[in-house]
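Lecture 7, part 2: worked example. A protein chain together with adenosine monophosphate.
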Amino acid sequence: MNSPARHDRPADAPLVHPVHDAAAKVLVVGSVALDSVETPFGRADDVLGGSGTYFASSASHFAPVQVVGVVGDDYPIEKLEPLRERGVDFAGLERASGTSFRWRGRYRHDLNSAETLETHLGVFSHFAPKIPEQFRNAPFVFLANIDPRLQLQVLDQVTAPKLVACDTMNFWIESRRPELIELLGRVDLITLNDGEVRQLTEKANLVHGAKWILDRGPKHVIIKKGEHGAFMFTKESVFFAPAYPLESVFDPTGAGDSFAGGFIGHLASTNDLSDLSMRRAVVVGSAMGSFAVEKFSNARLLEIGHDDIERRVQEFRQLVAFDAELRT
Ligand code: AMP
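Predicted complex, written out as structure tokens:
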């Protein structure tokens, strides 16, 4: 296994920077939804949700974000205003006649896995993503969790991105397996949770599962394990970051998309795709996932600032420090 160069920057230098002019643009295509969620700590109905929304709420802390998606004419569009104020560009958000995508889920005491109670596709069932001209050259593209057929259509419209990452879920692994496997051949990176890896690869062992995926195209496979952290596999190396040990997890919805937003946002902010930068991006992603679950919907992601994120990233550093030089 390759080990990364160790001293390219001081160990205590800030990792997180506010959005700056040199940050690359990030395009996300995903669901913009209304979620109804039950957790052991309460419930929320018809709150802002969707893979694209969580991703944008997180990534917009690091880089300019462009959203492509669809909502119905029943969508409370004013709920997206705080994201617009953060600079998120919704020029690619179509408003179609019909009902918005709705997801209803429940978490029991094991907050690691959501039980889907209802998926109402609404306007999503006729959606064909149209990437606006000004979004097509985005260097970073995230195909958030939507129908893999739509994810493939997006790739036909973008012009030579630097990095394409995708996500998916059990719903699509079951219903769109061939398209998902085709997609693997066209992306650089995929994020999945451990259950999804087992379902997709039919391998009980996650290392075998990661290899199966790497053999089909992506150069990086990120396996999220909820409160147990995340692995990043390449053909040459394995990296692991723990999850932040939160005292209270309120609502796990969106943790995965917020992870992806922090991960891609960091890469876009630094424009650096070296192994070390990818590893740091996993930690930034883990930090963003940990914020997402502290409140319902994207509320916590919208109230935090750059200092909160940097502080949490530093706490991650302490969490895994066992060499004397790494202790502050
Ligand atoms: P996660 O980060 O995996 O917790 O993502 C949660 C978000 O995914 C929720 O806000 C849902 O609205 C959205 N979602 C759930 N099912 C689907 C689906 N089949 N397609 C697209 N988005 C979905």
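Residues 275-292 form the longest helix (18 residues). Residues 1-6 have pLDDT under 50 and may be disordered. Keep this in mind for problem set question 3.
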